[in-house]
Amino acid sequence: MLGKVEICGVNTSKLKVLKNEETMELLKKAKQGDMAAREALIAGNLRLVLSVLQRFSGRGEHVDDLFQVGCIGLIKAIDHFNTDLDVRFSTYGVPMIVGEIRRYLRDNSAVRVSRSMRDTAYKVLQAKERYLSQHQKEPTIEELARLVDIRREEVVLALDAIVDPVSLYEPVYSDGGDPICVMDQVKDNKNTDEQWLEHIALKEAISHLTERERRILRLRFFEGRTQMEVSSEVGLSQAQVSRLEKNAIRQIRKDIGAPS
Questions:
Q1: In the predicted model, what is the mean pLDDT of residues 169-182?
Q2: Phi, psi at 70, each rounded to 5°
Q3: Which terminus of the chain, N or C, has less C-beta within 10 A?
Q4: Is residue 10's pLDDT more than 80?
């Protein structure tokens, strides 16, 4: 994002930067209906949008889309700014731009969260901020539940629902070599593709056995029966059970290409 010069057809390396006095003068003219002043304000504050975009890098969103959304936030800031207040435009504009981009990311997220769940989450966050300002410490889940008057489980679900999803390929550590990604830390070493394929091959090999052989293996290795117990159940001698068991295992090894 930072290395991209042209965004939405705009050469960002040549963007004009307005001084605060120029911005305030143009804002007053724009409030009086001067469209040229409004256009100059937008063009002169595009760098403000770019600075905000840096906060949202690595989200997987196209920078052109975020830039356009940020410009909408900038325009809203221009239209709603009160020139009578002793406040710099950037102080008012940045939160407006950030808010617009956050709404875009929230509403266009691949993970859809219901509006009621989002509303609950925002109530919890507001209660958390009030508690922090009053007590200078983080509230517990139980305290938040009491403040908002909802169950503890609802607090946890609401807060989890608005957490931005993380890409499995998001780098979490790098010492100059290959970076370690989220996938490297959460991957399942027990259920790999190789083991999955071996399971399929084993299941296929077992299907080639006779019904009696499959029954003997099930009793022996899935139910933990002894050969004597199996012989009593299937009506064969222990020697016959042992021979059928060995033949079945040998056939399975052959079918899956395992050494005998």
A1: 65
A2: -60, -35
A3: C
A4: no
Fold match between domain 6-107 and domain 193-256: no
Question: Of 157, 134, 160, whose CA–CA distance to 147 is shortest?
Answer: 134
pTM here is: 0.43
- Of 24-38, 142-156, 159-173, the one with minimum mean pLDDT is 159-173
How far CA 167 is from CA of 124, 136, 184, in Å, comes to 26, 33, 12
- Exposed/middle/buried for 176, CB within 10 Å: 0-12, 13-18, 19+? exposed
Residues of the chain with pLDDT > 70, as a percent, come to 76
Domain 115-161's class?
mainly alpha
Give CA–CA dist 51/90, Å, rounded: 11
Could you name the CATH architecture of 6-107?
Up-down Bundle (1.20)
Dihedral sign, Cα of residue 228, residue 234, residue 239, residue 242 = negative
Q: What is the rounded average pLDDT for all residues in the chain?
A: 81
Q: Is pLDDT above 50 for 100?
A: yes
What whole-number distance in Å separates Cα of residue 91 and Cα of residue 184? 41
CATH entry 1.10.10.10 includes domain 193-256: yes
- The CA-atom distances, in angstroms, between 19 and each of 24, 88, 163 are 9, 11, 37
Give residue limits of the domains in the chain. 6-107, 115-161, 193-256
Tokens of 92: 């008012």
Instruction: Read off the tokens for 182.
Output: 């989220």
